[in-house]
Specification:
The chain is mainly beta. It has three domains: 88 residues, Immunoglobulin-like, CATH 2.60.40.3780; 101 residues, Immunoglobulin-like, CATH 2.60.40; 142 residues, Beta Barrel (L,D-transpeptidase catalytic domain-like), CATH 2.40.440. The strands form six sheets. Strands 19-18-17-25-20 form a five-stranded mixed sheet, with no helix packed on it. The longest helix has 23 residues.
């Protein structure tokens, strides 16, 4: 019996020896290792694991016009950049919780983008990941012809005008990317129309004439915007210009007089001869805007649908409409100035008066034309006839109202 008990005590001692090392590897609730783990949040393996980053879109042949979204799991985003091969960046915004980032701009067609995301994991581990995606090319590219030009000084009636190469069927998407900034908070609105050429066009005009000295900037962030059937835009457009002196040109076709006013005061009154009454040679009425000072040009009546009525070189030519109405020197009508309207639709004056007047005005100056016998009001798309649309109706021409 004693021998049997001795054998049992030996076996118990051996088990105790074998268990002792295992117990030493498992700290108790009050041990230093347990305290460190609790203080840093998570196990040591969790603290060493970086956040997982997901970027959409991904791969090649991605459809253009999408926003880029980056998300992080197991951590937060601290910085995200999305750049093309030229170094142009798609700016974006990180969500308040740091879990996602969304680009403010859309991906342009035929472009490769590199996405770089920096994250901080829950345990403090920082890491940076990089991915690349490429958008499919555009089947059709839409381009823009815009006015006025950068650095120009224009008159108080000059609208900001964009004419598109191809139709714009998604006008709201395009207008959302157009921003006008002025130095004095000028109130205005966009209005869509058909240009005289038949192309789609959008103009921004103030509620009333510009205040002289106003600085104006157009920022058209169109790169990556789908215009609909007309295709994609693949670049941005911008222009900055200044409003010049407060010129208003008043043309009274009944009295055959042109008056130049500056800041509300009369500068000079000039006898003129307007379009011949009673037919296609009549002048337009309403507000026309001086589009360009073209100097000496050839005027051919066949280009404006008046047959072979004239074909001559004309000095001091100032274009008022796309349909062919000008103010210019007309010495051949000298006997009619101030007496009768005998032109083919233009506003003619003497060489001396035209020379002086040409030197005073600039593109963007309004010509307020009145008269009983005219062929109608200048349409918005016929030059810059925007001012002939009442303000309330003009606002309804925006695609965003």
């Amino acid at each position: 019996m004693e021998a049997q008990l001795s054998h049992i005590r030996v076996r118990i001692a051996m088990v105790a020896v074998l268990l002792a090392p295992l117990a030493a590897c498992s700290p108790g609730p009050g041990s230093e290792a347990a305290t460190r783990s609790a203080g840093q949040g998570g196990t040591e393996s969790e603290r060493g694991r970086p956040a997982t980053v997901t970027t959409l879109p991904e791969g090649r042949g991605v459809r253009a016009g999408v926003t880029v979204k980056v998300t992080a799991a197991g951590g937060t985003l601290t910085a995200v950049t999305v750049t093309d091969a030229a170094g142009h960046a798609l700016g974006g915004t990180v969500s308040p919780d740091g879990a996602s980032w969304v680009s403010r701009r859309k991906a342009a067609p035929g472009t490769s983008y590199t996405v770089t995301a920096t994250t901080a994991a829950k345990g403090g581990t920082k890491s940076t990941t990089t991915s690349v995606f490429t958008t499919a090319g555009a089947d059709k590219i839409n381009k823009v012809d815009w006015r006025p030009g950068t650095g120009s000084t224009v008159g108080i009636a000059q609208p900001v005008s964009l004419v598109f190469d191809h139709p714009v069927t998604d006008k709201a998407a395009v207008e959302e990317q157009l921003k006008i900034t002025t130095s004095n908070g000028t109130v205005g609105s966009w209005g869509w129309m058909k240009d005289w050429s038949g192309r789609d066009r959008v103009d921004w005009r103030p509620k009333g004439y510009w205040k002289p000295g106003t600085k104006v900037t157009l920022d058209a962030q169109l790169d990556g915007t789908d215009s609909g059937e007309g295709g994609w835009f693949v670049r941005d457009y911008s222009t900055t210009f200044t409003i010049g002196a407060g010129h208003v040109v008043k043309v009274d076709l009944d009295r055959k007089l042109l008056t130049l006013e500056r800041d509300g005061s009369t500068v000079r009154t000039i006898p003129v001869s307007g379009g011949t009454p009673g037919g296609d040679k009549r002048s337009w009425r309403g507000t026309a805007v001086l589009m360009a000072k073209e100097g000496t040009i050839n005027m051919n009546s066949e280009t404006v649908g008046l047959g072979d009525a004239y074909d001559k070189m004309v000095d001091h030519s100032m274009r008022l409409t796309w349909s062919g109405m000008y103010a210019h020197a007309a010495p051949w009508n000298d006997r009619w100035f101030g007496k009768a309207n005998m032109s083919s639709g233009c506003i003619g004056m003497s060489d001396a008066d035209a020379d002086w007047f040409y030197g005073q005005v600039r593109p963007g100056d309004p010509f307020e034309i009145t008269g009983r016998d005219t062929k109608g009001t200048v349409a918005p798309g016929n030059g810059f006839g925007d001012w002939n649309v009442p303000w309330d109706r003009w606002q309804t021409m925006s695609a965003l109202r």
